[in-house]
Design brief:
The chain is an alpha+beta fold.
Length: 400
Amino acid sequence: MEKIKIESLLKQVETINKKYDEIDKITGRSFNVFEAGNIGYLETFHTQLIAELLSPDGSHNQKDKFLRLFLETIGLKKLKLINPKSYAEFVIDNNRRIDILIEDENFIIGIEAKVYADDGNKQLKDYFEFLRKKNKQFKLYYLTLDRHSPDNKSLQDLKIDEDVFLLSFEDEIYNWLNECIKEVSDVPIIREGLYQYKLLLEKLTNKNTQKEKEVKEIIGKDVESIKAADEIVRNYPDVWYEKEYEFWNELFNYAINKYFKDWDDGDEDVYNFWYDKNKNEFTYEETLEKLKKAKFRGICFKKVINEKTIYIGVEYWKKDINCFLWYSGINVKVDGFKCVKDENGNIDYYYKYIDNPELRFYPNNNLTFDIFNNELFNKIKKSFANELNNIKKSLLENKK
């Protein structure tokens, strides 16, 4: 009986998803100018746009209208504004940059935004000390997609809800945008620009209020439905981790048989959940448990060429925007790749995000469900293997 109920629940939710997918196609909601321009995942895009909207001197010509709505949204409606300014990427001590800074004669607000990037060491602590030294009323906010807490390495001895306050794109920024859109309903260009940004946030945070309402009604309509939903939720993460394990293994086997036959498996040097230090392979169950805790995962190949060990791989960082290709051990610049330097200024590795096809694993607000379709699974696998081979060819051709 329970299995029948789960299948019925899934079928009903599937029907709702299909309905809203069709609505998005008909209404044009599937298209987003920021996403099409491949900038929607960039942290600086979000912070610069928000800072511009908050600026009374901004190109929107709405004076402090958006700023007042923002302060009201985050519970600071009573602040009296006296010549307020808004800045993006505000430089402070040690060349650190606060993503968004709002300041007037009496108060100062710092906002550190994280879309996909990790926290820096002492980052929030340094921002807090900078704000405190201004001798004004101040507040420091940490803005993320889903309101998660910052790392302790960034906080140091600071306390959440005492020294640092949490905000999310999903709630505060989204609600603020709705209020801003109402205020400029008679200014078409600004209204539509804000609406496009709102749609981008809906996709990044997997938010659709009307669809969510319908799904909640189905899940909560009776005891059996909520039990079935609970069973799905408890098994959902494992389904993703098992599929991810399958993908990396099939990608490795396909790539090494087709393109990297004379290369070695480089996993034991880079990753820590497929093999132990002695290259003894973990069991399937052990690997799944390690995969759940791993910050990054993927595959790589290595080969010694002219006494240098060259690595080529594909990697995924937890909650990242997409998988990325990388290589190291050779100082050769391949088109489209960026270099990452170590603390001494030496090139550590080169990397490039894979834009097409996209691939994002659980947990992420924008998962790639295509890998549960066998045909698309194989298509993505072959595309990634081909990308790895293209790096190899570029590097070897450059060595000749």
